[in-house]
Amino acid sequence: MSSAHTRPKRRKKSAKSPTRGERIAFIAAPPGTDTSVIRQLLQKHGTNAFALDEMDLPGASLSRLVREAIDRADVVIAVLAGREESRNVLIEVGVAQGLKKPTLIIAADEEATSLGAETGIPYLRAKPNNFAALDFGLAQFLAAPHHHNSALATQKETQPLGDGADALLARLRRIKPQPGSKDNERLLQDIVVEALKASGISTLSVGQRQGDARSIDIAVWCNDLEPWIQNPFLIEVKGNLPGQGELDALVKRFSDAFGPGIISWALVIYGEAAPQAHRLKHLHPHILLISAEDFLVSLRDTAFGDLIRKLQSERLDGRG
Length: 320
Known about the structure:
40% of the residues lie in helices and 18% in strands. The chain contains twelve helices and twelve strands. The strands form three sheets. It has a five-stranded parallel β-sheet with strand order 2-1-3-4-5, with helices on both faces.
């Protein structure tokens, strides 16, 4: 089975019983993987980590070691690399699912993250030494109320739109560009709401516009986003990609909606992009931006929950 790179000094401490209130995480990773950043962040969030080679069971068979290690753990962190290197890690993930252990997959390769998308196991697309991405992702995973997340117990709430996306795209393309047009924004919002409902989202709230005072356009409750993004997930629809000043105002409106001290993710869907669009994507670390056309095209083959998690992963990995 897998054996993550560890320091011998920690061998017995990690595999023994935790102190009161401390959780235990079993790290499954290909041999030679440096898991020091993962360990550091787990410790930061009150979780003591160990790997298979830290088990103190002389003479035990490999299968017994794996089962005993996972049985002792509160959560399992699986680090995936290439398919061949990760073969034993995948077996350990299967054991963890059989024992109903909350499991998180960490993988930088898109092929590896497909396991999470297919099975419903939470995953974080990041390298094992990406401190920023891992810090946020592990904090969300550890803070979430954990239920059994095996493939048999998990059923996705959202699904791709398939051919239904084409009719919505046709309606979108009939909207004539008119900078600042509130009518266009209403038409665009109607299309977005219809796409969300068609994707399988049954619980959403649409804000009402009254003069200059505006609530958030759309609030969505979607189980597919958890544990990465808290509900409700807020969406703002703009006819044109806002400039920096308006985006700052949006950030404040999102912050007011979340409440003091709460940091969460939100999405801005826009109809037309300004020339400076590429510079606006990084103005706020938790605001995702996507054009209405890209949103609908993506939903043709990707479920809403998977799309938002993909956008989030790209942002955390510095690609979005």
